[in-house]
Amino acid sequence: MIRKQLQFKQATSLLIICVFCFSLLTLNSYAQFSKKQEVTFKIGMAGYTFKDISIDKTIEMMKRINVKYLSIKDIQLPLTSTQEEITAVKKKFADAGITIYTGGVIYMKTKEAVDQAFDYGKKLGIDMLVCAPNYELLPYVEQKVKETNIRVALHNHGPDNPLYPNATDIMKHIGNMDTRMGICIDIGHTTRDGQDPCVDMKRYFKRIFDIHIKDETAAAKEGKTCEMGRGVIDLPKFVETLKALKYTGVCSLEFEKDSKDPLPGVAESIGYFNACIQCTK
Amino acid sequence: MIRKQLQFKQATSLLIICVFCFSLLTLNSYAQFSKKQEVTFKIGMAGYTFKDISIDKTIEMMKRINVKYLSIKDIQLPLTSTQEEITAVKKKFADAGITIYTGGVIYMKTKEAVDQAFDYGKKLGIDMLVCAPNYELLPYVEQKVKETNIRVALHNHGPDNPLYPNATDIMKHIGNMDTRMGICIDIGHTTRDGQDPCVDMKRYFKRIFDIHIKDETAAAKEGKTCEMGRGVIDLPKFVETLKALKYTGVCSLEFEKDSKDPLPGVAESIGYFNACIQCTK
């Protein structure tokens, strides 16, 4: 009698667990096809993409791909611009529904260049600069961050640049500095440097303020930017990592190919990234 | 003693089932990120996309988006073309690595038009025509299929066209005819007609020879083609359906927007579709 009761209990427990696990599986496969899910981050463009394109054409292209955030590059809006010039450019983008949310990458080799960059940031009315100051200038940059309350996101440039090859190198230099000093992680250069963008994203998440997204032809120094989906970076996995971490910043596509005619490659990449967002958990 | 043995057995069974189910969950979430998975179908372009574009420009655009299959439209290569003209155009595409795998959509309102279309197919050396013959011509089309062994894929055109509004209407007319007569399912018009492309795909799979892919702004007559991912069609789910069915044909993007400058929208759509393939199970 006891034996029968136990067998019955055992069978019931097994059944309940099976039903529970298969429900989980079903929910899991449903989740990836829920198109209109909420995502915490935004899609943007890194200005270097448009280095050979006029501002008017840039606006036209960004409207075409329906991207509303821009990290402006000094090639389009020089660091020496007056307040009037900066206000006019900002208005042009704003009129097209585009927000200049940051500027960069700004290289800083002298104290004067640091001053100029923060002054540019103030004129632009932004709260963050994407930059790559020489290592010895970091204490001065920290002083400017404290003075202005403008954050800095240091950009990693892979194995072909001795300045900040990867996020770990950045953190080695700023880990103990003001927490308004962080990283703009470039997942292409990270990959070219042999690092895993998902690992670095998780490891340094609290200090990652901005992201340059792209794909690369190889996970090596020779790797070149290519259309998203055609290269070696596991972008679906990267998007899932962003979702899991609830990243709330911008992912800006830096398309370093076809600079005279970037729109087709940019559009293909944005389409690819949109589907990664819609298809992943 | 018996009771203890049973409890131990019960606990072991539960543990094994839990491990098994969690392994399944892990495998499931891994599967969607396996970038280089094998897919049985190909990506192509439907020629109507290039209705205002020259053949040379079409080739240039297709190379740019890395698409190698074309369903040529009579606007670019008229049905009245000679064998020499057809061979020359075919060679131009072949030299660029592009295969003309079918022609269409070809409308047929008379027996002569049916003859002309099959003659065109023979000259092109293709084994399938995408077409929309008047209903009363279907027996004659069947006769030509038997004579030539060229298959026909009838194209549905949604609620604004009395000829073949959806796949069900096509099957109502050809269900009992030669099995070399089938469907080119247009998922945009299917959606505009209030049908679910995934349901029709499963229901008529054996007779679906070709697919026109796109996205639509609305699941209604007023719906217009838009960039994939921006509209109402659940493309990730459709791609998963194709994978489950092991569809081996071509999915040809028919981008009926910006016909004077289709490349950006086409590129965004192809990027989106590529990610759907890479992200789904």
Task: Fill in the keyword field for this structure.
46% helix, 10 strands, globular, alpha/beta, homodimer, 10 helices, two-stranded antiparallel sheet, TIM Barrel, 281 residues, eight-stranded parallel beta barrel
What do these coordinates show?
The structure is a homodimer of 281-residue chains. Chain A contains ten helices and ten strands. The first copy, chain A, is of the alpha/beta class and 281 residues long. The first copy, chain A, folds into two domains: 36 residues; 241 residues, Divalent-metal-dependent TIM barrel enzymes (TIM Barrel), CATH 3.20.20. The longest helix of chain A has 30 residues. Chain A is globular, with a radius of gyration of 23 Å. The termini of chain A are far apart. About 7% of the residues of chain A have low confidence.
Would you summarize the structure shown here?
The structure is a homodimer. Chain A is of the alpha/beta class and about 280 residues long.
Shape of chain A: globular
> Which structural class is indicated by helix and strand composition of chain A?
alpha/beta
Radius of gyration of chain A: 23 Å
Considering DSSP H and I runs of 4 or more, what fraction of the residues of chain A is helical?
40-55%
| Number of structurally distinct domains of chain A | 2
Mean pLDDT across all amino acids of chain A: 91
Distance between the termini of chain A: 48 Å
Question: Largest interface: which pair?
Answer: A-B, 49 and 49 residues
Q: What name does the CATH topology of the largest domain in chain A carry?
A: TIM Barrel
The tally of helices of chain A reads: 10
